[in-house]
Amino acid sequence: MRILLVAACAIACGQSPRRPMMTTSSPLAAAAVAGVTDPALREIVADHWEHLMRWAPTWATTLGDHRYDEQLAPRDAISIAGAAGERDELLARLRALPAGGLGDTDRITLALLRGQLEAQHAMDACKFHEWSVDSANASEFGELSYLVELHTVKSPRDAANLVTRMTQGDRLIDDTIANLKLGLAHGRVAAAEKLRRAIEQLDHELARPVETWAMAAPASATPPSPDPWPAGERERQVHALRDVVARQIRPAFVRLRDFLRSQVMPRARGEQEGLVGIPGGDACYRAAIFLHVGLAKAADELHALGLAEIARTDRELAELGKAVLGTDDLAATIARLRDDRALYFGSRDELLAAAQRALDRAKAAIPRFFSVLPRTDCVMRETPAYEAPYSTIAYYRQPHYDGTKPGEYFVNTYKPETRPRFELEALTWHESIPGHHLQIALAQELGELPMFRKLEGSTAFVEGCDAWRASRLVVDTGIHAMGWTRAQAEVFMREHTALTDVNISNEVDRYIGWPGQALAYKVGQLEIFKLRAEAQAALGDRFDLKAFHAVVLGAGAVTLPILDGRVRAWIAAPVAAR
User: Fold this and answer.
1) Cα–Cα distance between 147 and 302 in angstroms, integer?
2) Where are the domains of the chain?
3) Per-residue pLDDT for 375 more than 60?
């Protein structure tokens, strides 16, 4: 509310949000509204897409919309409020649109877009920009490094646009500082450990030559042979980029590091690292549950579900320990899995080779279970060095919609001796195939659906399709709703998982910084498994796993209630239609 009041006052006084400049119409205008037949809904969907492209210009670049290639999204509080205001106007138009006369596809599109905007409106209560600090790929250092990687450079003009875009990086960092100052004034501040990690990352990077930074070493610096660029142009553009990083961005990171250390750290939260320690934290967590789970679930209900699932998996792990290790004691089984060095990788190269083998196995096996496969490839990458000490074990980045970049499965090789062999295959298959890549790449390649349905969607669907963690239900709700400390969360994970201390520390840090997201895994998995069991019971010998997968994946990352309706309609359909 305070930010909206400040924005209103500033606009009345002659200031305005730094709204991104719009040029011509989107090259994706037709694709943005594909499959939408109702004229009023079609207009709203088109306006929503333009809103997304204006306020996320780097994303627009990856999609092949190059109207904003010279721009960075504004980060100041007034512009953030302006973007939220535009979003709320779209939501009001959707709420006024009668759904009764819409066809099935349009009804789903309306429900998905309205639900998405309602969740984002509720999340405005979190005011993350006023207090959230990170040290992995969500940090300002990670964001600008990733920006350089994402910005497709095929020509000197592309390179010049990248340099122009990066000249705004110092403003982004200074806006971050201003937002954090606003948070301090409002009683919102990051947790001490999150700050310690962020400062440590900046200290480490600022001690290195700028030429070694990821944001100063674009992939386009290596020319093909023969090089189609004019002689010397590639070298000039790389020099220009490094000059911007050295003269503008590095000093801004010094300012950010010094501000975090001198002004924020002395006021940082100690043990109350979750949303319970933030003004309005209760409302924020309710919004986060709505955003990521999409069901009417209270935090205590999800916590209880997590504890019940943990009790089940504890019994299964003890039984596995008896069969394989000769002990049915849970603690002894976990200790053996955690402490036996033979169960861990010995080197970076060994870890990467094993991950590649697991990915290759998945690619070979997947046609047995899915009738439709994505055309876009998935490749393995190594987690960048600047984020590896603070990042999770692995993650996935979706392919560029314009086909210039494949899906990428990132493997963290930091301290390979802490990475267990026994979880690598499950991890690989979750992040790549048949997990995130299969679901996300297929969604991007769907036909008559609007762009937002191909590229965005329900967290519970996205994570429930891939893998799940019961402990995340317990720890996320414990931290953000019940006042658990970081230490309590780490102890719980040590007692109920075989993760090493390094992995547990980074996992808990992730849950603290991304409230609610961790809830989606187990909730989504249980719902999808329930639907599959019901389909098998109803269809008997007529149940076809490939066909079930096709109906689950065939409409994008829909919410769990919409998925429920799709599967039930498929079960009830005549055999020929199915």
Assistant:
1) 36
2) 2-288, 292-522
3) yes
The pLDDT-based confidence of 21 (bands split at 50, 70, 90) is: low
Q: How far is CA 344 from CA 382, 418, 435, 555, in A?
A: 18, 7, 24, 40
Please tell me the pTM assigned to this model: 0.90
Residue 533: pLDDT above 90?
yes
For residue 8, give both structure tokens.
């209103």
When computed from its CA atoms, the radius of gyration of the chain, rounded to whole angstroms, is 24
Q: Which residue has the higher pLDDT, 10 or 204?
A: 204
Quick one: which H or E segment has residue 94? helix 77-95
State how far the Cα of 438 lies from the Cα of 469, in Å rounded to an integer: 20
Residue in 29, 26, 23, 18 with CA at minimum distance from that of residue 55: 18
Partners of 457 in the β-ladder: 557
Buried b (16+ CB within 10 A) or exposed e, 105-139: bbbbbbbbbbbbbbbbebbbbbbbbbbbbbbbbbb
Query: For residue 309, what are the contacts with CB-CB under 8 A and spacing of at least 6?
Result: 470, 473, 522
Q: What is the DSSP string of 524-570?
A: HHHHHHHHHHHHHHHHGGG--HHHHHHHHHTT-B--HHHHHHHHHHH
